[in-house]
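SAMPLE LOG
Freezer: B-3
Tube label: C17
Construct: single chain, 180 aa
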Amino acid sequence: MRTCRAAAAGKFTVVLATLMMLVACGSDGPSPRAWAASVCSALTPWRAEISKLTNSTDQQMTAQTTPAQAKENLVRLFGGAEQASETARRKVEQAGVPEVEHGEEVSAGFRASLASMRDAYGRARTTIDGLGTGEASTFYEGVQAAVETLQQEYDASALDTSRLDSEELKRAFDEVPECR
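STRUCTURE (predicted):
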């Protein structure tokens, strides 16, 4: 009788240890809904800042300002977009890795896309900051070239979702209020 109890206790211990390992391994990251809510909360202010930047840049390109004033404003605007992109990237990083298949890949893709956008804005800021303002037409040609390069880099940094296909995350992004 003792051996049966000892064997049963041993099996119970193995089962319990296995369950504890599964629970520990399965709860490393946030649920798809929690992750989607965190990501959308990070991206909402970023989108607003980028929209504001786009409108302000358009205004700066058509405003009757001196090249020095336009340069100061554009450097500030692109610097703000660079900072907003980094803030969003950092918040997505803090959201962790969603508990879905290929969760690390999904999270890394979001972070990499935001880092690329951050860097594109930083390069545009640096380029415009380096332009001379003595000759207006030369300055505005330089600004136009910087903005075109920014647009190309921005387009290239878009998140490729073709390999990050998760039905759980799609559903979560559609359902959580933060993403609406």
